[in-house]
Description:
Blueprint: H1 7-26, H2 41-50, H3 59-68, H4 70-83, H5 89-96, H6 101-115, H7 117-126, H8 137-142, H9 154-157, E1 162-163, E2 174-175, H10 178-184, E3 199-201, E4 212-217, H11 221-231, E5 237-241, H12 246-259, E6 262-266, H13 273-281, E7 286-291, E8 305-309, H14 317-324, H15 336-348, H16 353-365, E9 369-372, H17 385-399, H18 401-407, E10 418-423, H19 430-441, E11 445-448, H20 450-453, H21 460-475, E12 478-481, H22 485-488, H23 497-514, E13 519-524, H24 532-535, E14 540-543, H25 549-559, H26 571-577, H27 582-599, H28 605-619, H29 625-628, H30 632-635
Parallel strand pairs: 4-7, 4-8, 5-6, 6-7, 10-13, 10-14, 11-12, 12-13
Antiparallel strand pairs: 1-2, 3-5, 9-11
Pfam families: AAA
Family: Belongs to the AAA ATPase family.
Keywords: ATP-binding, Nucleotide-binding
Amino acid sequence: MASVPEPWTVLADVLLQREALVCRLAEGRPPRDFAGLFVGQEDLDRILATLPGLDGPAVERVAAVRDQVRSDVDRARKNLEESLEGGSRFAVLARSAALAFAEAEVLAVVAAVELAPARQRLVAYVQDSVQLPQVTLATLDRIGAVEGVAPDSRLRRAELVDVGTTGPWATRTCTLPARVAWHLTGDASADPDLPAGTARALAEQGEPPERGLLLVNGGDRESRLRAVDDRWPERGRLLCPVPGNRAEWAATVREATLGGLVVVLDLAAPLDATGRDAIARADHLAWVLSSQPELPLESVPPVPWREVRVATGEADADDWWRALGREPDPGYRLDREQLRLVAAAAAAGEGDLAPAVRRLAGGHLDGVAVRIRPRRTWEDLIVPPDDARQLRELAARHRRRDVVYRQWRFPPVPSTGTVALFAGPSGTGKTLAAEVVAGELGLDLYKVDLSAVVSKYIGETEKNLERIFGAAAAGDLVLFFDEADALFGKRSEVSDAHDRYANIEVAYLLQRLETYDGLVVLATNLQRNIDQAFLRRISTAIDFTLPEEEQRRAIWSRSFPASAPVAELDIEFLARQFKISGGIIRNATLGAAFLAAEDGSPITMRHVALALKREFQKLGRLRTEVEFERYFELVNRDADAAPAR
């Protein structure tokens, strides 16, 4: 059973039939094989006879043919005009593109020809060339509709019709982009020229969203999208990065027009002139510029706009139930965008939340920080009792922040985060203490690689640090900045541009530290090198000193595993004689183990003494008889002397 023709195809057929009748009856032009492929004598005579001002067909003959079909044309136009108020794909598209009736008529003719080979043969006859089966500008001019495809027409602004750019103006063809043809035939596949990473959220086809430009800034991307949904509820949207070329811009405008979608551009940088012009040109659409920072005014397209500021959107209980079907985990502070990513990762895996959160953070931190999965505990940390109590208080401060800030409503000034300063000589346990605290909290420790963070290029250090803090906030990680005075050092007097920029970096770091809600540990050898502004932000400050004799005895004892072949070690002597850090002790025990393994014997005092010699050499420290006593001769032998057995 044949389907009922659409009003727009009926109008196209009537107009094309009228022009064919004019050619056949008024001009007396018969159909010809190979029309337009060559020009013969008869062709030349006929062409000369049809040129304006010569002996062309009489005006009355053309008028008579047009009058013959005028009622059919008027009836088809009326039917199309009435149908544009309906819900057909063509009608909704015309309203979405804000087409005038004349422009809708042009779209009807171009689309109908594009979709039917029979019409293409008819057009080739009207245009007297088998090489021109698509409607030309001359034919549109002939039916009085060429303005519908002018460069500034709605059809062109909405990217619904393409016009050739080469050859004589009259023979330039008007074609339908493939995506429009698929849409009119019922296929909703996305345009293949859309920018990579574009996501469509389709809605029930209805009236197009209210046009205009909305600037949404602040918060995370998912929270900004929620603000868009609040502005245009139950509307589809096209979320995409900024198009990178003319084809991508055209596909974006066309896709949004076809689907009646709100275009949400996710901006990583302000729009350039191309983008501003593209948005201003496609003013029939609803546009959203979504960005974390506010956009500079000079980068906003020259159209009326409104602005919405989004607060940092930490995911609430409703968000957790929608994404994961569970109550929020108090161990993680995720914004809505991070929760969406974690939910997707958990669904792709085994549904376990913790690996998904670690993966979220780790992917951004790898390369600028080293992950340390805590393995050592309080028993491995030998520090003075008061230092141990401070470390436990530090862990409690981070663990109980929900109670203090949320339940008891203490003001989180400047944030709910905790900053600790570990100061002391190298090897006194600062890194170990950070690992133990992270283990107590069940968190991963990320030791920031300063060489990968600090850059000589302007702005790069801030970008690296923003990447670190943003990823750490997602996973509720412990950030450990070793040798922190390299980043958090005192601001210098400004003597040149480099000094000025270094001070800007320090100011940025302080600002970012004050807005971070996690746990940060700053480690330094000298506390006095830390800028006073950072010291005011410190929650806990611990001075790590060289261990006393009792602590050194415990470190020496625990540095030798129970399974190690130890013989005749004088731990009392080692603890009493060598006032060294725990790090040096651990290095010495390991060095002694390798010496003994090479000798094929148990670990003896001679091996330990020789290992201490190497540690002193690394430090540039003198070996004295007072310290080494009976082992002094051993450690001062020439390098060629036989090794101890």
